[in-house]
Every structure is written in structure tokens, then in C-alpha cells.
């Protein structure tokens, strides 16, 4: 009875995934309606969300996407099924397949880890829209690739660093040296040079692929930042994920500035370290997710590469704490120039 | 025949050799620094970072040393460290930073107990069990993290909330400027004199702004030397690793000794883990150990299963890491340093081993040529420096390495 077996396996997977998702979120997610129901409910769409490793509750990447999904639920009345893969990430393909098979449309694949599984699953469901975030390599007719112009936000915080630096030396700590990460340093450098052409910028990446430990080495980030502060840098920008905490600690110890990334870290990092964060280069995953779901709900799904930059409100910088002060008008001016296309920000270091 | 009068301790070969080596390396580094103007090479900043990065590696190495000296291979150090980080972060968040340090040790001891029960009592293959401990620890850590940290502010399934409080630091008064006294070594370092400033910078790196945790770690190394080499307990423990059957026939409780060794080993690995969550950073983060348990084992092998050598190995790894993190351009200068060191070795060995000397001189020339013709080391190579350095040293010293004779062999009373 192979079919019975397959059905049982599927049910087990489903149950386990839901349990896993609940476990990771503390049981707060509302699961969408069962598959049969979603097909019956005409007009309304059921979104399937496959989170990246770590799942909801990670206070950064996944939670930003989750915020967008929550907004879509509230504003558009859509329902959503949210699943997380196992810790090893060995069931990414099954999670996608499960969501597509049970009639969810669109299916959101959160993170570039899904690129290979998605390339296998998407052709099997030609009538389902798949949305992959932070990946532009999967090019299929039913796939939407959502990417962000991180270099534009980095450009603005680079300009902010140059404006606020009194020593003429600034730094950058990256997580893993991959092309997406190089967008950060490229934009940062260009922005800082725009303000002060002769500014000294030291940069370090904590690891090289295939070693991805650079995103979870706060101790190494701390040493790298400490070295920069010792050498006279007074502002260090990090794009090192969870390692960034080390940069903030070094800034605190040295009594100098740091710049956060992805979310408004001055709000999220916690009381002790918040006051060292000058600004953060943000990436509005929620804005992008909401817009993609909105298009789909309106019956006009968009496919192909969707880039979210300053113009689309997909990236930006923060002014929490008001530390930028008199530098803000100049940064705002640059922002408008980028939106107007007067400034083109490079995506790879020169 | 000469009378066998014991030489004073400062003239014994195991003291004279390392001292000469240190002086030679210092000379070489100083030369390279003055020639290239790379002040970072012996700057107190880099040396301080070296020390901070070396502590977890050194503790992991010491952990391996305890276990292997008693004849139990411990490949599970990485896993024991992971358990140490989770437990340390949990207790550190709940009860403060020193409670975290203690909890890390307790977690490591528990993981060590598992390894001891499986390998010593049940005689399972030690390598297999070590690998199993590593795999198990990853899963257990995720589980504990979800149970203990989910829903807390700033935490999630892969990260703990920040540990409460910090461990203070100390600077040696007068020499390194502790308690508002003058910073003599710091001033010496600023003069950039040949050799003197280098020695000053290095010493200051070791004495300035040192965490109390590091002080504890150094004390543990000294304590290990004392216990393992200067007590009857230590002799028995080492006998269990060198020849368990002979030790048993003389009344040494081999199994009990091995238990003690593996428990201490687990505790030290757990301590290395708690260093990562209390001093190196203030949170637990999945994947934080980053293979340092294995690097610790490499440091132990580098150090020929001896505490001083293990510390040397850990410092070497720490130095390569620190240089790469703080001054990645300085790594290029290391090629010149290698050339100088090779030439020195060639000169020293000229009389006794002329052929080897020739090879070394040739290698030195090659290194020099590479240094002269390139401007920078490819980034991938920069990250590989610590591993290349170990490989180089292991290749050149492999002949003299001697591990405890019965490492990896389960002991059965009266068995074959």
C-alpha cells in the first residue's frame, strides 16, 4: 500500500513541522485553514511561509518576515500557514512541497538556503507562485525573487559615519565574504568617500565561504572592532548578523560609535548597548513581504526579480535616539539623490 | 667518566632549548618589524587579542591533555564545550556571570561523565564515542536553548539573553599601568626601539587589561603541571595512559584514574565553553564554538601532550587569529618572518645536519622571493594561516612527538 504509506508520511511531516513551528515561536502562530478549506474559500488566498533555519522568534530575519505576514493577515484578511525547517535544514524541500501540495499560494521561501530546493520543487507546481527572499539565482516562470538594495542603505550610513567621525578613520566588520556581503562594504565605502574623499576605511570579514561561522562569532567581531578602535577609528559599521553584538561591546568599551544592520538595532539590542548605536542600515523585509502578498491577493502576482531599494521603502536608515543630529539633512539629501537616480551606488568594492 | 652532578635547573636542556627558541623568534620578529615598519607584529594590542583568543583553545587543549594522559582519546571536547556554553549562558542569565562560569564547568563534567561511562566502563571505541558526543551536544544544545531561552527578551531558539554582569580585568601595576600607576612597558613600546620595544609590547599585551578568567585559566595550567607531574595521583593517572596493565599490577585503580581524568577533561572543556559566553561575548549563540575544541586538540598535539607546549600551540593559533582580525595586511609580513626563521634554523643546523640545512635555506629563499614579488596574501590564505602554521610545525616536529602509549585502547582487567 504505497499510497497509504505516503499519506501517513505526509501527515506525520505536517504534524511535526507544525509542532516545530510552534516550538520555535512559543506557540503563538495561528495556523491557516486546512487544505480543503483554502481551496473552497474563493477570492481569499492562503499564504504558505517556509521560514529559514531558526524559525520565528529569532528577533531578526525570520521575525521581520513574520511581521510582514502578520500585517498581511490584519490588513488583507489573508490566512497563512507558517512552517520552520528542522535545525539541520535537511527538510527544506519537503517543507516547500508540503505547502504547495496543500494548496497554499503564494509560497514564501525565506532565505537563500531555499534556492536549490526551490529549483527542484517549483517546476512541479506551475500554478503556484513561489517567492524566494534574498536570492536572484532561481529563474523560473512561477518564481518571484525578492532582493534588497543593501548597498543603498550602506551608502547612507557610510555618509553618516564620515559626517560624524572626528578622527577621519572608520571601520567595517562583515560576516562572511560573499558577493551579497560585498554590497555592504561597497556602498559604505562609496558613501563615506562621497563626504570625505580621503577618509581611511579599514574592513574585515570574519570568515570566508564555505565557512559561515562569521555570522555567529561575536568574540571575533569584538576583537576585530577593538583593533579598529585602537587604531583610531571612531565609528564601525557591522554587517555580521549575530556577531554584530561583539562590535557593540567593543564600541561600549572604547566609548565610541557603532552602526547596526537589518533592523533598528538601537531598539532591539537591549538597554546596556543601545547608546553606542549611531544609526542602523535597515532592510524592510516586512514591507517587501506585504507588497508581494498584496499583489497576489489582488490577483496580479508579479514574477521575476523584484528589487527593493530606497525608492520602494525596502531599505533605509534609522534616526532613533537622534544621534545623527545636524548630519541628518545631508543624509536625507543623498537619499533623495539616490531615489532620483542622480547617484548610482556600486554593488562590488572597487 | 664524568661525575653525575645534576646541573642547575636553568642549564637543563628542557629549559635552555625553549629559552633559546624564544629569543631567536623574538630576534627574528624584531628584525622583520623594523625592516617593514609593521608595528602591529609585536604591538600590545595584537598580543592582548592573542591572549584573549588563545584562552578557549588552550583550555580545550588542556582538557584533551588530561584525558589522553590517562589513555582516553577525547574527540568530544567540541561537544563538551557546546554544553558548557549553553549551561554557562543559562546560569549566567539567571544568577550572574560567575554562576555561569561554574555552570559551564558542571555541564562539561556531565558530558565528560557520559564519555567516561561509555568508554571506560563499557569499553566502547573512544573515537566513535567522542564523535557521538559532538553530534549529541548539538541537538541537546538546541533543545535546551528552546526550553530555557524562548520568549525571553533578546533571545530565541538559537540565542540566549545576555549574561548578567561582566568579569573584570586587571593590569599589572607599575609595569602595565594598573591602578593608576605609570605604564612603563607602554612607554617602552612607543619608542619603537629594536628588540626592547618588541619585548615591551609583548609583555604589556600579557599584563595589561587581562580578564580575571584568564588569570584562572593560567592558574589551571600551572595546577595541571603540579598535579600531573608532581603528585602520586598524577603519576598514577599518567601510568594509566602509558601502560595500564603494568599500573594495575602495581595496584593503581586504572578505571578510576581514567574516570577522574575524563571528568576533569570535561570540566575544562565546559570552562572553555563558559569563557565564550562570559568573556569573549555575553550571549550563547548556536555555532559559537566554531571548531575550537578540535583546534585545542591540535594545540595539544603541537605541544607534545605537555602543558607548556599546549599553551604555546594555543598562543600560536591565537596570534594567527588576532593578526588576521586586527591587521590582515600584516599577514603578508609573516612570509618574510618565515623566511628569516628558516634561515636562522639553517644556520643553527649547518654543522650537524647540513643537508636539512640546505633544504631550509632553499625554502627560506623561496619564501623571500614570494614576499618580494607579491603585495598581499590572497584573502583565502589569510584565513588559513593558523592551520598552515600548525601544519608546518607538525610536519617539522612530528619526529619528536610522542603520545601516551595507550591512548585509544580500552582497558579490561585481565583482558588481552
Automatic annotation (TrEMBL), chain A:
It holds the Pfam family Bmp. It is found in: Cell membrane. Its main location: membrane. CDD domains: PBP1_PrnA-like. Residues 1-20 form the signal peptide. Coiled coil: none annotated. Residues 51-346 form the ABC transporter substrate-binding protein PnrA-like domain. It is a lipid-anchor. InterPro entries: BMP_lipoprotein (IPR050957), Peripla_BP_I (IPR028082), PnrA-like (IPR003760). SUPFAM superfamilies: Periplasmic binding protein-like I (SSF53822). It comes from the Bacteria. Keywords: Cell membrane, Lipoprotein, Membrane, Signal. Belongs to the BMP lipoprotein family. This is BMP family ABC transporter substrate-binding protein. It comes from Microbispora triticiradicis. The lineage of its organism: Bacteria, Bacillati, Actinomycetota, Actinomycetes, Streptosporangiales.
Automatic annotation (TrEMBL), chain B:
Signal peptide: none annotated. It comes from Microbispora triticiradicis. It is a multi-pass membrane protein. Its main location: membrane. It comes from the Bacteria. The chain crosses the membrane at residues 44-65, 72-91, 97-120, 127-149, 210-229, 259-277, 329-349, 380-398. This is ABC transporter permease. It is found in: Cell membrane. One of its GO terms (molecular function) is transmembrane transporter activity. GO terms for cellular component: plasma membrane. CDD domains: TM_PBP1_transp_TpRbsC_like. Keywords: Cell membrane, Membrane, Transmembrane, Transmembrane helix.
Amino acid at each position: 500500500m504505497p499510497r497509504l504509506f505516503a499519506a501517513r508520511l505526509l501527515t506525520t511531516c505536517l504534524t511535526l513541522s507544525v509542532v516545530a513551528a510552534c516550538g520555535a515561536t512559543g506557540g503563538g502562530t495561528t495556523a491557516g485553514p486546512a487544505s480543503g478549506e483554502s481551496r473552497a474559500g474563493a477570492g481569499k488566498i492562503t499564504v504558505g511561509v517556509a521560514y529559514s533555519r531558526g524559525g520565528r522568534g529569532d528577533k531578526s530575519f525570520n521575525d521581520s518576515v513574520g511581521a510582514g505576514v502578520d500585517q498581511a493577515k490584519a490588513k488583507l484578511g489573508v490566512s497563512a500557514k507558517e512552517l520552520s525547517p528542522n535545525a539541520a535544514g535537511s527538510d527544506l524541500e519537503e517543507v516547500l512541497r508540503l505547502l504547495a501540495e496543500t494548496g497554499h499560494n503564494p509560497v514564501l521561501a525565506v532565505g537563500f538556503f531555499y534556492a536549490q530546493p526551490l529549483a527542484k520543487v517549483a517546476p512541479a507546481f506551475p500554478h503556484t507562485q513561489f517567492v524566494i527572499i534574498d536570492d536572484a539565482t532561481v529563474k523560473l516562470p512561477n518564481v518571484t525573487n525578492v532582493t534588497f538594495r543593501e548597498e543603498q542603505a550602506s551608502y547612507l550610513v557610510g555618509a553618516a559615519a564620515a559626517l560624524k567621525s572626528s578622527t577621519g578613520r572608520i571601520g567595517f566588520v562583515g560576516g562572511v565574504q560573499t558577493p551579497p556581503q560585498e554590497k555592504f562594504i561597497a556602498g559604505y565605502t562609496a558613501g563615506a568617500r562621497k563626504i570625505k574623499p580621503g577618509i581611511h576605511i579599514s574592513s574585515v570579514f570574519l570568515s570566508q565561504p564555505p565557512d559561515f561561522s562569521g555570522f555567529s562569532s561575536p568574540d571575533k567581531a569584538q576583537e576585530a572592532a577593538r583593533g579598529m578602535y585602537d587604531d583610531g577609528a571612531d565609528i564601525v559599521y557591522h554587517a555580521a548578523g549575530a556577531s554584530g553584538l561583539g562590535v557593540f561591546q567593543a564600541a561600549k568599551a572604547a566609548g565610541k560609535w557603532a552602526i547596526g544592520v537589518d533592523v533598528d538595532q538601537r531598539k532591539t539590542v537591549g538597554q546596556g548597548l543601545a547608546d553606542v548605536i549611531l544609526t542602523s542600515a535597515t532592510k524592510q523585509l516586512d514591507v517587501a513581504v506585504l507588497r508581494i502578498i498584496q499583489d497576489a491577493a489582488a490577483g496580479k502576482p508579479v514574477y521575476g526579480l523584484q528589487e527593493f531599494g530606497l525608492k520602494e521603502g525596502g531599505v533605509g536608515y534609522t534616526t532613533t535616539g537622534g544621534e545623527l543630529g545636524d548630519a541628518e539633512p545631508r543624509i536625507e539629501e543623498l537619499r533623495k539623490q539616490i531615489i532620483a537616480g542622480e547617484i548610482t551606488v556600486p554593488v562590488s568594492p572597487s | 667518566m664524568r661525575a653525575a652532578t645534576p646541573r642547575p635547573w636553568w642549564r637543563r636542556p628542557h629549559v635552555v632549548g625553549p629559552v633559546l627558541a624564544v629569543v631567536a623568534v623574538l630576534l627574528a620578529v624584531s628584525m622583520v618589524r623594523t625592516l617593514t615598519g609593521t608595528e602591529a607584529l609585536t604591538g600590545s594590542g595584537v598580543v592582548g587579542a592573542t591572549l584573549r583568543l588563545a584562552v578557549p583553545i588552550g583550555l580545550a587543549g588542556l582538557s584533551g591533555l588530561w584525558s589522553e594522559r590517562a589513555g582516553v582519546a577525547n574527540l568530544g571536547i567540541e561537544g563538551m564545550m557546546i554544553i558548557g556554553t549553553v549551561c554557562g549562558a543559562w546560569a549566567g542569565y539567571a544568577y550572574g556571570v560567575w554562576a555561569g562560569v561554574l555552570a559551564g564547568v558542571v555541564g562539561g563534567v556531565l558530558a565528560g561523565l557520559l564519555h567516561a561511562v561509555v568508554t571506560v566502563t563499557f569499553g566502547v571505541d573512544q573515537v566513535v564515542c567522542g564523535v557521538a558526543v559532538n553530534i549529541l551536544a548539538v541537538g541537546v544544545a538546541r533543545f535546551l536553548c528552546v526550553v530555557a531561552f524562548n520568549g525571553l527578551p533578546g533571545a530565541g531558539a538559537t540565542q540566549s539573553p545576555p549574561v548578567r554582569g561582566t568579569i573584570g580585568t586587571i593590569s599589572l601595576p607599575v609595569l602595565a599601568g594598573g591602578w593608576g600607576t605609570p605604564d612603563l612597558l607602554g612607554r617602552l613600546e612607543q619608542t619603537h626601539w629594536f628588540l626592547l620595544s618588541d619585548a615591551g609590547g609583548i609583555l604589556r599585551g600579557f599584563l595589561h587589561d587581562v580578564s580575571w578568567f584568564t588569570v584562572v585559566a593560567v592558574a589551571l595550567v600551572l595546577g595541571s603541571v603540579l598535579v600531573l607531574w608532581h603528585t602520586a595521583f598524577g603519576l598514577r593517572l599518567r601510568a594509566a595512559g602509558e601502560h595500564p596493565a603494568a599500573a594495575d599490577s602495581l595496584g593503581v585503580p586504572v578505571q578510576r584514574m581514567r574516570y577522574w581524568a575524563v571528568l576533569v577533561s570535561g570540566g575544562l572543556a565546559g570552562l572553555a565553553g563558559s569563557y565564550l559566553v562570559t568573556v569573549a561575548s555575553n550571549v550563547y549563540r548556536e555555532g559559537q564554538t566554531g571548531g575550537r575544541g578540535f583546534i585545542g586538540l591540535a594545540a595539544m598535539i603541537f605541544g607534545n601532550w605537555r602543558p607548556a607546549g599546549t599553551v604555546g600551540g594555543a598562543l600560536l593559533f591565537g596570534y594567527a587569529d588576532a593578526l588576521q582580525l586586527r591587521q590582515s595586511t600584516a599577514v603578508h609580513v609573516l612570509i618574510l618572518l618565515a623566511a628569516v626563521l628558516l634561515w636562522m634554523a639553517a644556520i643553527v643546523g649547518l654543522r650537524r645536519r647540513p643537508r636539512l640545512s640546505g633544504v631550509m635555506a632553499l625554502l627560506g629563499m623561496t619564501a623571500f622571493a614570494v614576499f618580494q614579488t607579491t603585495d598581499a596574501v590572497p584573502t583565502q590564505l589569510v584565513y588559513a594561516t593558523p592551520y598552515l602554521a600548525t601544519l608546518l610545525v607538525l610536519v617539522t616536529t612530528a619526529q619528536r612527538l610522542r603520545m601516551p602509549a595507550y591512548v585509544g585502547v580500552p582497558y579490561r582487567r585481565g583482558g588481552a
